[in-house]
């Protein structure tokens, strides 16, 4: 029988959790400094987590960590960790821990439960919708540009229209992924852009690009350099709808990789929202590896 006991001291669990995270990020291709920065971001919120020891007939078989917090005015739960030790897998402990976490969070008012997967979880979370993936790829040499496609810096005159359209696209991505309501997504979009681009086009360590072919604008790009040590984060590599299906998606990625190298970074990383299967397939074919996958389920069902 699977039982759960809340830990008063989670030091042992945290050491094991961070060790596993470090191994996962390193296996994904991050160097030691970038992996440590990723762990620091996770560590900042661990103090609020409730950690339970999973036991079977008095023997510890794993851990499960949960938290409920305010998310844009609504309570949302999160499974921070769910780990069953190798010798005890496949005996129903994983499913029992998932069910316990769902009940624990629902009992505290959470309407949604999120989880961030950094390693395969089998079929355990198949019923959870994919909300997004963090992808990355090392860029060792300048990519071959697509014939006829050029990338140039965005101008001040182009920035306001780009900002407005980027906010609309961001809101649509969030809503399509099922992460928030349209109203919540608009508020998040306004907050995020104000924080990320406080000086607009002049914000340091950001590159904003316009992609063109034959003098016609076909897309845009927005990249943040030094997001992690040696890592550029691509907030947006966008091809206008009327120009899709012509291979320009690869051209946008090549422009992002060129900007990454020009800024002195060696890795390009970005998020692709759930529901965008076309983009996911493109990134997979281009060698972009999944570092993390975010999933969630509605607890009000």
From TrEMBL:
Q: Which Gene3D superfamilies match?
A: 3.40.630.30
| Domain N-acetyltransferase: residue ranges | 149-301
Q: Does the keyword Zinc apply?
A: no
Q: Does the keyword Acyltransferase apply?
A: yes
Which CDD domains would you find in this protein's record?
NAT_SF (cd04301)
Q: Which SUPFAM superfamilies match?
A: Acyl-CoA N-acyltransferases (Nat)
Q: For this UniProt record, give its keywords in alphabetical order, as a comma-separated list.
A: Acyltransferase, Dioxygenase, Oxidoreductase, Transferase
- GO molecular-function annotation terms? acyltransferase activity, transferring groups other than amino-acyl groups; dioxygenase activity
Q: Which Pfam families does the record associate with it? A: Acetyltransf_1 (PF00583)
Q: What is this protein called?
A: Aromatic ring-opening dioxygenase LigA
Organism encoding this protein: Streptomyces cellostaticus
């Amino acid at each position: 029988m699977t039982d759960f006991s809340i830990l008063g001291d989670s030091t042992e669990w945290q050491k094991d959790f961070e060790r596993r995270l470090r191994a996962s990020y390193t296996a994904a291709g991050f160097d030691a400094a970038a992996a440590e920065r990723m762990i620091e971001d996770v560590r900042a919120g661990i103090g609020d987590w409730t950690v339970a020891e999973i036991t079977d007939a008095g023997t510890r078989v794993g851990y499960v960590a949960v938290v409920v917090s305010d998310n844009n005015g609504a309570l949302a739960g999160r499974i921070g960790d769910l780990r069953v030790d190798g010798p005890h897998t496949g005996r129903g402990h994983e499913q029992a821990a998932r069910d316990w976490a769902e009940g624990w969070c629902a009992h505290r008012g959470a309407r949604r439960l999120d989880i961030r997967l950094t390693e395969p979880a089998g079929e355990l979370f198949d019923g959870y919708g994919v909300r997004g993936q963090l992808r990355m790829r090392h860029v060792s040499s300048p990519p071959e540009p697509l014939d006829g496609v050029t990338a140039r810096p965005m101008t001040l005159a182009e920035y306001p229209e780009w900002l407005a359209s980027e906010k609309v696209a961001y809101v649509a991505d969030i809503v399509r992924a099922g992460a928030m309501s349209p109203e919540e997504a608009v508020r998040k979009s306004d907050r995020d852009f104000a924080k990320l681009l406080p000086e607009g086009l002049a914000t340091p360590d950001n590159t904003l690009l316009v992609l063109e072919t034959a003098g016609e604008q076909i897309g845009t790009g927005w990249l943040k350099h030094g997001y992690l040590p040696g890592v550029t984060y691509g907030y947006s590599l966008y091809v206008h709808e009327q120009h899709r299906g012509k291979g320009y998606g690869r051209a946008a990625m090549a422009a992002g990789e060129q900007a990454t190298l020009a800024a002195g970074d060696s890795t390009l990383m970005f998020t692709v929202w759930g529901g965008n299967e076309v983009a996911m397939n493109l990134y997979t074919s281009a060698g972009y590896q999944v570092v993390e996958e975010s999933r969630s389920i509605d607890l009000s069902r």
